[in-house]
Amino acid sequence: GEIARMPIDKDKILLGKDRFLCVGGIGMLVAPTGVGKSTAVLDMAARWSLRKPSFGIEPQFALKILIVQAENDDGDMTEMTRDVYAQFTPKEQAQVDQRVHCTHITKWTAANFIVVLGELLKEFKPYLVIIDPLNAYTGCDPSDADSVTTFLRTWLNPLLEKHDCAALIVHHTPKTRSWDTSKWKPIDWV
């Protein structure tokens, strides 16, 4: 009963009117390789930094966003960013430049990545950090549930709470490699 009577802290809501993502929380964007997850992430970050909806998800205010990515080289990022920026006015582009920071990290994984991420969160002070992709940073086999849980719950969640932000994590479904997937259930694609 006590929990049912607690007021909801609306200041902790970052995305969605119905508390889609709140401070300290983790959201996942899961899809196969090559479908445009990284471009979608850039669009989300740009639009949410302008307090505009992306994919029907509305931010509660103009978000400051840190993108940490490992897979896209400078050419990829230039091509994707040009496409995203084409939809905005020069004034909006300048606002996105002020509120969205993207960094390429390939050197650190596991606990070392968490330490580096903590320094970036302290420096940039984002409301949302986008990690693209999960497998580049866990330092473990993605099917090792104990290690992935340690990365997310023991290391990442406390870091998000400490810095009053949330995370959106990009994750690849497994590559099928000519496997017979006809009897797979939806959970088998994760």
Give an overview in words:
With 190 residues, the protein is an alpha/beta fold. The chain is built from six helices and seven strands; from the N terminus they run H-E-E-E-H-E-H-H-E-H-E-H-E. A five-stranded parallel sheet has the order 3-7-6-4-5, sandwiched between helices. Strand 6, helix 6 (145-162) and strand 7 (166-172) form a beta-alpha-beta unit. Helix 2 packs across helix 3, helix 2 (37-49) crosses helix 4 and helix 5 (110-124) packs parallel to helix 6.
The radius of gyration is 17 Å
Report the helical percentage: 25-40%
Low-pLDDT ranges: none
- Judged by helices, strands and strand pairing, the structural class is alpha/beta
Following the backbone from N to C, one meets helices and strands in this order, namely: HEEEHEHHEHEHE
Number of strands: 7
Distance between the termini: 36 Å
Strand neighbour order, sheet with most strands? 3-7-6-4-5
What fraction strand? 15-25%
- Largest sheet descriptor: 5 strands, parallel
Shape, principal axes of CA atoms: globular
Number of helical segments? 6
Mean pLDDT: 93
Main traits of this protein?
190 residues; two-stranded antiparallel sheet; alpha/beta; 7 strands
Q: Helices and strands in order, then pairings?
A:
Elements: H1 2-5, E1 13-15, E2 21-22, E3 26-31, H2 37-49, E4 65-69, H3 74-85, H4 90-99, E5 100-104, H5 110-124, E6 128-132, H6 145-162, E7 166-172
Parallel strand pairs: 3-7, 4-5, 4-6, 6-7
Antiparallel strand pairs: 1-2
Helix pairs in contact: 2-3, 2-4, 5-6
Quick structural overview:
The protein is an alpha/beta fold and 190 residues long. 38% of the residues lie in helices and 17% in strands.
